[in-house]
Amino acid sequence: MIELKKVAIGYQKKGGVLTVQENINGCISKGKLVGLLGGNGKGKSTLLRTILGLQPALKGEVLIQGIPLSGISAKAMAKEVAVVLTDKIQTPYMTVRELIESGRSPHTNWWGKMKHEDLLLIEQVIDQLGIDAIQHRPFNELSDGQKQLSLIGRALAQDTGVILLDEPAAHLDVPNKIRIFSLLQQLSRGGKTVLICSHDLDLSLRFCDDLLLLHQEELPVLGMAEELVLNGTFGRYFNQGEVQFNIQSGRFDFQKKFRRQVNIDTVPSPQRRWLVQALHKKEIGISPLPTENEIQWKDSQWHFNSQQFDHLSPLINAIDTYLT
Ligand SMILES: Nc1ncnc2c1ncn2[C@@H]1O[C@H](COP(=O)(O)OP(=O)(O)OP(=O)(O)O)[C@@H](O)[C@H]1O
Description:
Blueprint: E1 2-13, E2 16-28, E3 33-38, H1 44-52, E4 59-64, E5 67-68, H2 74-80, E6 81-84, H3 96-102, H4 116-129, H5 144-158, E7 162-166, H6 174-189, E8 193-197, H7 201-207, E9 210-214, E10 221-224, H8 225-230, H9 233-238, E11 243-246, E12 251-254, E13 260-262, H10 271-281, E14 284-286, E15 295-298, E16 301-304, E17 307-309, H11 312-322
Parallel strand pairs: 3-8, 3-9, 6-7, 7-8, 13-14
Antiparallel strand pairs: 1-2, 1-4, 4-5, 9-10, 11-12, 15-16, 16-17
The structure holds adenosine-5'-triphosphate.
Adenosine-5'-triphosphate binds next to β2 and α1.
């Protein structure tokens, strides 16, 4: 586990100190998938680098598996903590498989000779990530998403108690993103401590047990994801102007006030959800009051202004014309 005790993070500069965040407290527990979330420039990467000991904390203390960072050698750190950072890595010619195998180096002998168990683990990682088809391709020739999967593979092959990931799913397609979050969740259930920094708030809410939220004006907060939503903290930390978190849908809405409005009170789900989206694209809002502009869904048909429509597209065009 990772313990943070009154940690302040930032940079020593010529003119003084730039404090990015302070008073970061809490325990990133074993067996949990924890998301590190915050808007741009709030200090997520800085905190990850501080936890890794790549830069000193300005104040406070970081403990890894109960030991203060200052007391952990680089070799011991490599056995305890695996990391996937966003920095572009330059590998001299190396295949995906060789890159993943290099994750075993903290555990192998000086010659890097791998035992049967090491090879089994490599096979398992390649299988878990679904990268069998690219395992013999040169890393430098891969797409960004394939590179990301390979780097995650190297971290998994390291087989450490703690895994830190900085935006590991940024370049991945949706099924691969879900696969990575789900795999990290599975790893945490197996007893690992996993801290993932992400801008994907939706997947973080769905998969992470706890969230560590960073904000400019408010103190960092660590808590159960659903609790932070229900007590309003999550929304408060991310709402910006017209972009507001909707506690019902769990999504961020662009809450623009539309001049033109219709009433859809009687439209059931799922038609309602997609009708609202199509109306908003035409700058038509939803009126909470019954008005004469009512849309209905009856007998698998749309009804508006005494007309019937089999499909959404002509309905939306008719409303758009009528309300112009
Ligand atoms: N080497 C550096 N020297 C000085 N300031 C830095 C340095 N690296 C980052 N910063 C500053 O620290 C703050 C936090 O940056 P950091 O990269 O940790 O944010 P982040 O939350 O990871 O952002 P993003 O989501 O945009 O990647 C920013 O104001 C940034 O300008």
